[in-house]
Design a protein that fits this description.
The chain is an alpha+beta fold. The protein has four helices and 13 strands. A six-stranded mixed sheet has the order 3-6-8-9-10-11, sandwiched between helices. The chain has a five-stranded mixed sheet with strand order 2-1-5-4-7, with helices on both faces. The N and C termini lie far apart (about 50 Å).
């Protein structure tokens, strides 16, 4: 019979310290760390477009827009994720290497990450009380799905179509995300 070994666990403190000097990024899930892969050109263009649109609306205000190197802490540190783009409008959210209270999170989907982004991360992100928008932008085909928290606290789901705009409103912040602006300069493979 083969030997069974217990998976090593890492503390939150060791994880955060290790990320400061690691040449690659890792996400943290209940004591386990998982290396993150690189991203495609389309992925980078889409994330850059989202950042640009959100940042342009945040200039001069109290909200911060962060790209893929800022962690989001979920469930009091049980999980740390690196979303592609996050918008934070909570002035008390001052940790230097992670944020607790994003208003908007956007993930750019690839074949390798889509299942995790749609299930695991979505289930975890719902626990964030400040979160109002979760965008899932496909990097394989021009599709944008989103979740928006209703006034009653439930979640509405929608798909942003060509010619449409998603109005983003957080504390002291407003932005309009147009479908075409999110996919600006993105080159799609020629169809057969």
């Amino acid at each position: 019979m083969s030997q069974v070994a217990e998976l090593p666990r890492i503390t939150i403190e060791d994880y955060l310290e290790g990320e400061l000097s690691s040449p690659i990024r890792h996400e943290y899930l209940a004591g386990q760390v998982y290396a993150m892969a690189g991203a495609s050109e389309r992925h980078n263009r889409i994330a850059g477009n989202l950042f640009f649109q959100l940042r342009a609306a945040a200039r001069g205000g109290s909200c911060g827009v962060f790209m893929s190197d800022m962690k989001i802490r979920v469930r009091g540190g049980e999980r740390f994720y690196y979303p592609d783009v996050a918008l934070v409008c909570d002035a008390t959210d001052q940790a230097e290497y992670y944020k607790d209270n994003p208003c908007l999170i956007a993930e750019v989907l690839s074949p390798a990450t889509e299942t995790t982004d749609r299930r695991e991360k979505w289930l975890a992100y719902q626990d964030l009380p400040a979160l109002r928008y979760y965008l899932l932008v496909n990097a394989v085909r021009p599709e944008i799905d989103y979740y928006q928290r209703s006034a009653e606290g439930g979640w509405l789901v929608g798909r942003l179509e060509p010619g449409e705009t998603l109005e983003v409103e957080c504390d002291g912040y407003r932005a309009a995300l147009r479908f075409e602006d999110i996919f600006e300069d993105v080159r799609w493979p020629a169809s057969d």
